[in-house]
Amino acid sequence: MTRYAVFLRGVNVGGVKVLMKDLVHLLEDAGFTDVKTLLASGNAVLSARTDDPLAVKEKCDAVLAEHYQRPIPTIVCTVKEVQRLSQPFPLPLPEPASEHHGYFTLCESAADAQALGAAIQDLAEPATHLIQDRAVAWIVRKGQSTTNPIGKLMDAQAKHRLVTTRNHNTLVKVAKILG
User: Fold this and answer.
1) What angle do CA 132, 83, 141 make, to 5 degrees?
2) CA–CA distance, 128 with 126 (Å, rounded to integer)
3) Which residues contact 156 (CB under 8 A, 6 or more apart)?
4) If you ran DSSP here, which 8-state letter would residue 57 be given?
5) For the segment 115-141, what is each residue's pLDDT rounded down to a tens digit?
């Protein structure tokens, strides 16, 4: 069995309500085992009989779409990917550090991460960011993740490509559950 992290995009916002207890049952009924969820924002870890993350993604996407009668796209990450992202945040937080958060926007592909990086560079005030494989690290003052320029950019990009953003602390917690 191979462990994976599954990140649902756009749940429990904008009218798409996915209860985590229901998500556990859906994924178990689909044949996944050791399913656990974290927070109410669509974070799950599971075991699958395949070592192909794309097969896990396709199955999760199909199960969710059938149950909720609408697409709920997922990004599936391997244990290695999550462990890499859960290391100490790769960018220095501005002072006072306690007033800032590190975020990762997870992308479907490394090419999408590169495109997001280029879009950040094109902002009127380019912001500090770092591309790590298929994720983009960025920093925001607490309480401003949806209103700062990168947050707005990521929201706009989500209409054109499969991306989902998670707080670094969430990825650390997901890595601990993955073991």
Assistant:
1) 60
2) 7
3) none
4) H
5) 999 999 999 887 899 999 999 999 999
